[in-house]
User: Fold this.
Amino acid sequence: MDKQKGMDMTVGSPFQKIVLFTIPLILGNILQQLHNLGDTKVVSFYLHEHAFAAVGMTAVISNTLIGLVNGFTQGFGILTAAAFGMKNPVKIRKNVAGSFVLTVILTTLLMTGAFLSIRNLLVLLHTPELLIDQAEAYIRIIFLGLPFTALYNLTANQLRSLGESKVPLYCLTASIFLNLLLDILAAHTSGRRVLDIQMTLLYTFGFAMTTYVSQNFGAGRVDRIKQGVKTAIGIVSVLSLCLIVFSMFFARILVTWIASTDNQLIIENATMYCRVGTWFFPALGPLFILRCSLQGMGHRVVPLSTSVLEFFVKIFSVAILVPYLGYLGVALTEPISWVLMASILAVGYLAVMRKRSK
Assistant:
């Protein structure tokens, strides 16, 4: 296995390995978020407010589908990373080939289901009649690009599983420059976009931990897994505090610029949404670390269960909180699910580590 390329995360300082591997991930995700930010600005500045609102109404659906695609391609990468940790090149090749076939099948099923149910989903989300046609047209365009999103995520996650996080960054940079020339529309509402940019810094550490834990699990280094998880949680905790301070000072400025409006109600609500979200980042950061670490060790039940439960918690939170708290209830919906899911994942992780230590 001397010819094996990529970053071997089974040796050396966990802090150094995690940080060096995560830096290209952070840069790539920031580039992606800045590109989306620019597109949001185009929509808000040149088009009617209804178009801007219609784009925002599709965020839940598009994020869910893209999250599913990234989820199963990341899961395939876990198997490859474990084979890398075991120094087994034959198994690595088999995993990559199998991952490609499964990605094609799953993406086809997702696209078919999405195209058939999109109108009903928009109605279920109480999309206003004034916006539903524009929202449907927009989200159908997003669906058409899903195979290419799946292909990128598959190849990127396979490369990352081998410790290579720079090549995906180069490819993403090239695609962003191309997209800027095409200037296609893809965005959330202003408050969500500002929050997404900050969340990027947290969840990229989760992606890094998937590779780190998978490689060390394959190598049988449970001690390094424990050390790495503690290190990563420490990093995202400090980063969360920095983002809270940043949001308090700059959220309103960014929201005002993105929304291109002088409507104070929009600005106030969007700013509040962003700030409330960042207050709960100390729960969100560990959530990403623990979920990805459990997945990296091959434990899928707890991470999958929390993902499904998180969806239902959001629905119930909206139904219970919004009638009493208004838009503040909307802002609190996700943070409540973060706290609950982080608690469940912490219990699951400790149980797994206790079992592995015996």
Notes: The chain has one domain: 14-357. Confidence is low (pLDDT under 50) at residues 181-188.
